[in-house]
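Minutes, project check-in
Item: structure for the 536-residue chain
Input as provided by the requester:
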Amino acid sequence: MTGDESQPRARGLSAWTTRRWLRAGVAASLAVLALLGLVGAWILGRTASIGADLVDVKSPALTVSVRLESALLNQETGIRGYGLTGLPDFLQPYRTGIAEQKSDTARLSDLLRGDTAGLRDLRTVREAAEKWQEGFARPIAASPAGAPSPLAADQATAGKAAFDRARRAMSAQQAGLRVERDRARSQLASAMRLRNWVFTAIALVIAALAGLVFEGLRRGITTPLAQLGAAARTVADGDFGHPINPTGPADLRRLSGEIDSMRRRLVRELDFSEEARQRLDAQSAELQRSNAELEQFAYVASHDLQEPLRKISSFTQLLRRRYGGQLDDRADQYIDYAVDGANRMQVLISDLLDFSRVGRVHRVPEPVDLGSVVRRTLSSLSVGTEEAGAVITRDELPTLAADPTQMGMLWQNLIGNAVKFRAPDRTPRIHVSAVEDGELWRFSVTDNGIGIAPEYAEKVFVIFQRLHTKDAYSGSGIGLAMCKKIVEFHGGTIFVDPEYTDGTRITFTLPSEPPQSGEPQAAGEPRETGEPRETG
């Protein structure tokens, strides 16, 4: 075969899929096994046929022939004794031999059906026995009992010659039957040897076929799959540049190609992700630098702004003390406006600085006894609560890992708001509760104050969003926004309970362990160590 003819065939075989190879292999294996089964069935049938002929025909025929000879001998012995003595007892073996001769002859005729030579020998034996019986045995048997038969002496020589001819016919028949039996035995031995060789060959062919099947599976399926798995594990371990070479049947090569295509696409995406990560790291570093600068700026600006504000406030207060009542009422009013504005500006700047520092400047979380924090908060608010006549109760509060300063700011704003926004017509009653809810703790500050309308439940947590004028209620509008920022910084949520209508209920959650922030303290900022301050 030329190279041009072999290339299309190679290409055709290379396009075979695993299923097609398996189908072809199974079909070839079934064909070989079917052929081996036919050969095995034939040799088994031949062995069984020869064995059955030996056991059911040849050996029984020889045995029956020997019994037939014994029956003739019984007849000869009985008829000879009767002829010599005349005693009737000698006729019994003769009559028994006659019956056995008939049955043995019929049995031999049945066994030798289809055997021409055997039937011919049987016919010779039958004719010889018939001549001896007709010429010698029957006449003597017909003689009267009680006295020797004269025919026994007269026909003794002729009778002996006739019986000898019958015995020679029997011997010839038995010799033929022995030859046939020996031939059948030889054929059976040959058939058994052939059967053994054939089944040995079948076993070897099956073993070779199994070896071919296993080798084909190893080369065509298991080895390519093992190579593909090893390459995939290499890629999965991080060597994304490792190529996946297609091997095996067409479908496994397609699978390898698809996996390699996915690997190349993953490499491209990883390269893109690495570039994006580098850009993100650069932006994050720039953002951290900018935040640090902003924090520094906010801190410096607050201090720089507070200094002139303190001067304005101090001098306007001096003006009010020294010249109060000496000027007209309008001048006194202007001085009061200036003092109040300077004071509120100081509070606003301080509150803004505190708000910006939540989540940026903080202590490392530590176990905080919230009960102790609430007691300190109530102590710092004692003047306001006594003036308002507020009744404050609380449940047992847990110890959580948190920033203690921020926890103080949180409780001060919530309890301070509950006191501030009290109803004028009833005694303020405030209750602080805590309930464990799975991995979270759910806290509530409930009061019987003026309440918050449902449409403002979200707005109150936005910075500078006030529901009342500063004349009605003092404050900067930062308090609840700061509470939300503190709670969310600790991994919780805060909201106004819409189902409570007898006042206001602020509910928030805190985990037992706060999320890891890892944000460093901004440069130039002092750590917060003092007591929290009310921010409104």
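Outcome recorded: The mean pLDDT is 78.
No further action items on this chain.
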